[in-house]
Design goal:
Low-confidence stretches: 8-22, 108-126
Strand content: under 5%
Mean pLDDT: 76
Distance between the termini: 32 Å
Number of helices: 7
Shape: elongated
Order of helices and strands: HHHHHHH
Number of strands: 0
Largest sheet: none
Radius of gyration: 20 Å
């Protein structure tokens, strides 16, 4: 993904990570400072999802920029008592769906590989664009949630829910009591 996406300050200098607001309910999207703060807090995560959904950096950058343009235009309808992040992700989801629809309408040169999805339709192999984007968003949210869990708990969660292993087998492999494995899941 390259370097961290940081919005320029009013003077044109980049705003450092420690100048970012700590919570997004303090952000007023109706002014430049608010948009910069929202960008600094959320642009990297939005880019990651857009890149996974669209498959190229240019389109992902465009999608993130369009997300912030739409957020700025709809700032009056944003309820500042609610977290900003989910609202931005909902906007991005719509932007990505719009881009996928637009790609379907634009002709794309054939790569010569009939079994590969084309750039015009990145979701062909995995269902409709909306379904694929929902899967990507769910996967990303799950990845983020697991990343925030302690490693010993994450290991048990992954082994039980994704590898369909029993608590007894996990406990045996980790050298812990089965009851401990159960409490970590």
């Amino acid at each position: 993904m390259g370097g961290r996406r940081v919005a320029p300050s009013e003077s044109g200098d980049a705003v450092s990570a420690d100048q970012r607001p700590s919570i997004d309910t303090d952000i007023d999207l109706r002014d430049d400072r608010g948009i910069r703060a929202a960008w600094n807090l959320h642009a990297d995560e939005l880019f990651g999802l857009a890149y996974r959904a669209l498959g190229d950096r240019g389109s992902a950058d465009d999608a993130v920029q369009e997300t912030f343009v739409r957020a700025w235009r709809a700032a009056a309808s944003y309820d500042r008592s609610r977290p900003l992040r989910p609202w931005l992700f909902a906007i991005l989801r719509n932007v990505v769906i719009d881009e996928a629809r637009a790609r379907r309408r634009r002709p794309v040169p054939d790569s010569g590989h009939d079994d590969e999805p084309t750039l015009a339709d990145p979701f062909t192999a995995h269902g409709s664009g909306r379904e694929r984007l929902d899967q990507l968003l769910d996967g990303w949210l799950l990845h983020e949630a697991l990343r925030r869990v302690r490693e010993d708990h994450r290991l048990v969660l992954v082994e039980t829910y994704y590898r369909d292993r029993s608590y007894a087998a996990i406990a045996r492999d980790l050298g812990i009591p089965e009851s401990t494995a159960r409490t970590r899941a």
